[in-house]
Every structure is written in structure tokens, then in C-alpha cells.
């Protein structure tokens, strides 16, 4: 796999994560609408354009055969946009204006549907490439509209000198999302994706600049207004923790892919998989206790699901199943104890206050988080002895550095030492793993270099020396690579007659 292919895969993952976040970026505003039973001075345009843009992208993704990330995230956007628009109408004071915007969106969607249906059934006589270009121009327009939608009230912002009518979280996520999509588009050479995201990055940056220019102001009517510097930093790191935590939850996928191909887990330990589950399982209860649904509860659910799947497949391909079962039993006992305490505490049986319960769960979280960050180093003795880090999951180590750093900053900003403390340990342990990996980095042996031939090398050389060993020379097959392979263009092939003798 070339460096470009790796970059495309990484960009796909990042765009998938940031786009999911963008589709859900109006949830903080939705929560405010629900609490106040009013949408305040916000416009319905972000919700409507979220739906409209994603609806058009469904057809574009289908035509260019981009199921992931484009089609999948567009389905989510259609659902989220539809629900947000519905609840906006329910709680808005200006329903007549909202209905006019709904009608406009309906007409656009009807036109897109009509054209796409006729084009894909061959009525327009266009080629698949021509259909993609036409739909690309349509989605370019709707995407720019989506990125511009948080700024539909910019005149009011400048007049009132407060950015309360602009959805701040959506603006932050738009900057990150448009950057990732622009990077992905440049890698795959798609200008219909690149162009609107350059505009989106610019518009998102302008919105954040306006938020700083017109900072928080107290108002007599209690209206929610633009956040201050600390709130902005908190929101930014809340977004970053979601991104890095999702990456951490799936950081063992490269190792899983290797297990699947080799049908064995090799010399890796099951602890990283088990601790992803254990840490996330404990995080669910702690998130409930401190009322932190995003990012803590949401990412913990993902961790539980991924952890279970990884441990099941690890056991399936593990060469030492009895040792794995022992760790499973230990994890099960710990989870039973945590569950029992949490149920009793949250039900009030222990007689603890909410603060006391959250403190106890916080200490449990510290232990679970530290163990999770330490789990990639479960085989460090073997690494030092064999002088190879193959038993330590490298990707998980890299992601752990970023994830623990973001969680540490987020914990500091919201003044939660139970989030800050274990992530300081996490940064330290992950950096140690990176240092150990560098010290004992993989170096191909001479035998491996002789035995392995890349297709690029063969193409460059244009020739290949072959020696045929007869069945009588079978005694040499174990040492043939060492004794007879004097050049990198030497390959041993056994005679076809071998194995056919009666």
C-alpha cells in the first residue's frame, strides 16, 4: 500500500468522523430550544440547508459510487436535518417565515429528484460522467449554502453586537469538517468536493472571528448569547475529544485487519481490546452521574460496542485461548462489581449524595483509564527481550497520545480532575510506548530481505533468476534461502513433480 493510499484511507476516516459531527452539530442549539421552548433569534436556515444539502448529496454519492463517507453521512444528515427542522417549527415564534423557507426547500428537493431520476434512467441521454458533473454543480451550490447558513443573521449580529443568533458549535465543526473534506478531495482529485469546502473553511473562519469580535454580553431577558473565550475553548476541545476518542475506539482496526489476514493474533495481548471495553463500560456510569452526555457518554457507547467485537475476534484467532479466558473472567468480575455499585448508588441505596457517587465513580474511572492507556505496554517485557515492538499496537499508541492530551485539556477547562489526572498519565505512558517503539523499531533481517521481492523491484530489473530444486534436493529447502540466494533477484521454486510421487 502506497503512502497516497494510506493518506486517502486516513482522510476518509477523518471526513467520516467530522461529517457525522457536523450533521449533529446543531444538537447543543436543539437542547437550548427544548429547555427554553423557543428558538430565540436563530434562523431555521441551518436546519433546512442541512437537510437539503444532504438530500442532494445522496444522488451525487450514488452516481459517483462514493458510499463511504459521502452516502452514509448524507443519510444521517437527511434524518438529522428533517428532525431539527420539525422541532424548530414547533418552537419558533415566526412560523409563517419558517413555512416559506420550507416551501423553497421542498421545490429545490423536487427539482433535484426529478432531474436525478430522469438522468439515472437514461431519459436525458447523459453519460454517467455527465450526470456526476451536473449533480456535482448542484451539490456545490447546496454545500456552500450549508456552510453559509450559520451567517444568515449576520446583519443582526453586527447591529446587536452579539453573535447569539449564529450556531457556534456548527461554526467550529464546519471549519474542521471543511478542512478534512478539502484535504480528502485534493487526494482523490474531485473539484466538486474541494471547491465548496474551500469556501466553507473561509466562511467558518469568518463566523468564529465574528464570535471573538462580539463576545459575551449579559442581557436582561436571559437570552443565550455568544460564548466567552473559556466557553469557546471548551467547545473546541469538546469537539477534538470526540474526534480523537472515536479514533482511539477504532485504533485497533489495523491490528484486527492483520489478525483477520493471518488468522492469528500473533504475540499481541488481549488487554488493549478488553480495556477499551472496560474503560468505556465504566465511562457510561460516570457520564450518567456527572450528566456529561457529549462527549463522554456517546463515545463510551462506541467503545463498549467496539471493545466487545474486538475481544470476540481476538479470542477466535488467539493461539493461547486459556490465557485469554482468564483475562475475560477477570474483566467480567470487575464489570459485575462496578455494575452492582453503580446500580445501588444511583438508586440511592448506599445513602451517598450525587457528589459523593460521582467522586467514587471518578476514582474508578481514573483506574480504568490508566489501565487502558497502559494496556498497549502489556508485553513490554517481551519487547525488551526480543528487541521488537511487534506485540505493541502502534496505531493505538499514536492515537492515545493525541486523545489523552485532548481529554486532559478538556478536563482542565471544565475543572474535572477525574478527567485530567488519568490523561496526564495517559500522555506519559503513550509517549513511553512511542519511545520504546522507536528504540526497537522493526528492521528487516538479511534473510527477510533476500526472501522477499517486491513487484516494483522486479519491474525495475526486468528479469528474475530461478533455480529449480528437484524432490531429491528437498533437504536443502530450509537453508536454501540462506545458502543459495546470493542476490536479491534469486527465488527458489520446487519442481512440479514434488508431491506427486506415489
TrEMBL record:
<feature type="transmembrane region" description="Helical">
    <location>
        <begin position="296"/>
        <end position="315"/>
    </location>
</feature>
<keyword id="KW-0333">Golgi apparatus</keyword>
<feature type="transmembrane region" description="Helical">
    <location>
        <begin position="355"/>
        <end position="374"/>
    </location>
</feature>
<feature type="transmembrane region" description="Helical">
    <location>
        <begin position="70"/>
        <end position="89"/>
    </location>
</feature>
<keyword id="KW-0813">Transport</keyword>
<keyword id="KW-1133">Transmembrane helix</keyword>
<feature type="transmembrane region" description="Helical">
    <location>
        <begin position="224"/>
        <end position="248"/>
    </location>
</feature>
<dbReference type="InterPro" id="IPR004316">
    <property type="entry name" value="SWEET_rpt"/>
</dbReference>
<dbReference type="GO" id="GO:0051119">
    <property type="term" value="F:sugar transmembrane transporter activity"/>
</dbReference>
<keyword id="KW-0812">Transmembrane</keyword>
<comment type="similarity">
    <text>Belongs to the SWEET sugar transporter family.</text>
</comment>
<feature type="transmembrane region" description="Helical">
    <location>
        <begin position="48"/>
        <end position="64"/>
    </location>
</feature>
<keyword id="KW-0472">Membrane</keyword>
<feature type="transmembrane region" description="Helical">
    <location>
        <begin position="6"/>
        <end position="27"/>
    </location>
</feature>
<keyword id="KW-1003">Cell membrane</keyword>
<dbReference type="InterPro" id="IPR047664">
    <property type="entry name" value="SWEET"/>
</dbReference>
<dbReference type="GO" id="GO:0000139">
    <property type="term" value="C:Golgi membrane"/>
</dbReference>
<feature type="transmembrane region" description="Helical">
    <location>
        <begin position="179"/>
        <end position="204"/>
    </location>
</feature>
<keyword id="KW-0677">Repeat</keyword>
<keyword id="KW-0762">Sugar transport</keyword>
<feature type="transmembrane region" description="Helical">
    <location>
        <begin position="269"/>
        <end position="290"/>
    </location>
</feature>
<protein>
    <recommendedName>
        <fullName>Sugar transporter SWEET1</fullName>
    </recommendedName>
</protein>
<feature type="transmembrane region" description="Helical">
    <location>
        <begin position="133"/>
        <end position="158"/>
    </location>
</feature>
<dbReference type="GO" id="GO:0005886">
    <property type="term" value="C:plasma membrane"/>
</dbReference>
<feature type="transmembrane region" description="Helical">
    <location>
        <begin position="101"/>
        <end position="121"/>
    </location>
</feature>
<feature type="transmembrane region" description="Helical">
    <location>
        <begin position="419"/>
        <end position="440"/>
    </location>
</feature>
<feature type="transmembrane region" description="Helical">
    <location>
        <begin position="394"/>
        <end position="413"/>
    </location>
</feature>
<dbReference type="Pfam" id="PF03083">
    <property type="entry name" value="MtN3_slv"/>
</dbReference>
<feature type="transmembrane region" description="Helical">
    <location>
        <begin position="327"/>
        <end position="349"/>
    </location>
</feature>
Amino acid at each position: 500500500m502506497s503512502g497516497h493510499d494510506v493518506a486517502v484511507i486516513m482522510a476518509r476516516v477523518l471526513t467520516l468522523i467530522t461529517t457525522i459531527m457536523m450533521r449533529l452539530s446543531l444538537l447543543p442549539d436543539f437542547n437550548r430550544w427544548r429547555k427554553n421552548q423557543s428558538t430565540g433569534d436563530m434562523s431555521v436556515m441551518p436546519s433546512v440547508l442541512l437537510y437539503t444539502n444532504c438530500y442532494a448529496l445522496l444522488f451525487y454519492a450514488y452516481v459517483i459510487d462514493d458510499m463511504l463517507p459521502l452516502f452514509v453521512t448524507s443519510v444521517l444528515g437527511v434524518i438529522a436535518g428533517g428532525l431539527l427542522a420539525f422541532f424548530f417549527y414547533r418552537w419558533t415564534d415566526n412560523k409563517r417565515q419558517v413555512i416559506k423557507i420550507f416551501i423553497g426547500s421542498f421545490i429545490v428537493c423536487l427539482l433535484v429528484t426529478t432531474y436525478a431520476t430522469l438522468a439515472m434512467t437514461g431519459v436525458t441521454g447523459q453519460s454517467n460522467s455527465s450526470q456526476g458533473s451536473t449533480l456535482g454543480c448542484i451539490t456545490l451550490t447546496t454545500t456552500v449554502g450549508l456552510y453559509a447558513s450559520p451567517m444568515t443573521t449576520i446583519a443582526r449580529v453586527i447591529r446587536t453586537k452579539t453573535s447569539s443568533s449564529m450556531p457556534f458549535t456548527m461554526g467550529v465543526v464546519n471549519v474542521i469538517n471543511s478542512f478534512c473534506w478539502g484535504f480528502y478531495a485534493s487526494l482523490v482529485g474531485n473539484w466538486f468536493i474541494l471547491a465548496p469546502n474551500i469556501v466553507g473553511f473561509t466562511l467558518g473562519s469568518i463566523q468564529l472571528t465574528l464570535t471573538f469580535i462580539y463576545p459575551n454580553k449579559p442581557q436582561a431577558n436571559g437570552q443565550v448569547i455568544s460564548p466567552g473565550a473559556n466557553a469557546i475553548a471548551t467547545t473546541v476541545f469538546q469537539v477534538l475529544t470526540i474526534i480523537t476518542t472515536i479514533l482511539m475506539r477504532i485504533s485497533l482496526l489495523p491490528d484486527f485487519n492483520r489478525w483477520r489476514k493471518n488468522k492469528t493474533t500473533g504475540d499481541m495481548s488481549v488487554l488493549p481490546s478488553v480495556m477499551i471495553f472496560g474503560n468505556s463500560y465504566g465511562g457510561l456510569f460516570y457520564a450518567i452521574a456527572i450528566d456529561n452526555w457529549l462527549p463522554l457518554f456517546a463515545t463510551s457507547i462506541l467503545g463498549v460496542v467496539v471493545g466487545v467485537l474486538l475481544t470476540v475476534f481476538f479470542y477466535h484467532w488467539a493461539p493461547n485461548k486459556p490465557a485469554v479466558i482468564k483475562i475475560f473472567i477477570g474483566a467480567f468480575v470487575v464489570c459485575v462489581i462496578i455494575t452492582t455499585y453503580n446500580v445501588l448508588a444511583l438508586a440511592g441505596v448506599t445513602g451517598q449524595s450525587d457528589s459523593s457517587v460521582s467522586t467514587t465513580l471518578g476514582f474508578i474511572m481514573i483506574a480504568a483509564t490508566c489501565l487502558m492507556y497502559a494496556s498497549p505496554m502489556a508485553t513490554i517485557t517481551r519487547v525488551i527481550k526480543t528487541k521488537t515492538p511487534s506485540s505493541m499496537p502502534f496505531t493505538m499508541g499514536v492515537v492515545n497520545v493525541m486523545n489523552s492530551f485532548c481529554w486532559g485539556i478538556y478536563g482542565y477547562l471544565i475543572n474535572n480532575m477525574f478527567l485530567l489526572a488519568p490523561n496526564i498519565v495517559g500522555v506519559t505512558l503513550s509517549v513511553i510506548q512511542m519511545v520504546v517503539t522507536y528504540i526497537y523499531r522493526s528492521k528487516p533481517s538479511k534473510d527477510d530481505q533476500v526472501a522477499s521481492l517486491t513487484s516494483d523491484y522486479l519491474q525495475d530489473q526486468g528479469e528474475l533468476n530461478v533455480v529449480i530444486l528437484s524432490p531429491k534436493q528437498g533437504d536443502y529447502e530450509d537453508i536454501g534461502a540462506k545458502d543459495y540466494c546470493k542476490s536479491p533477484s534469486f527465488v527458489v521454486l520446487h519442481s512440479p513433480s514434488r508431491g506427486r510421487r506415489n
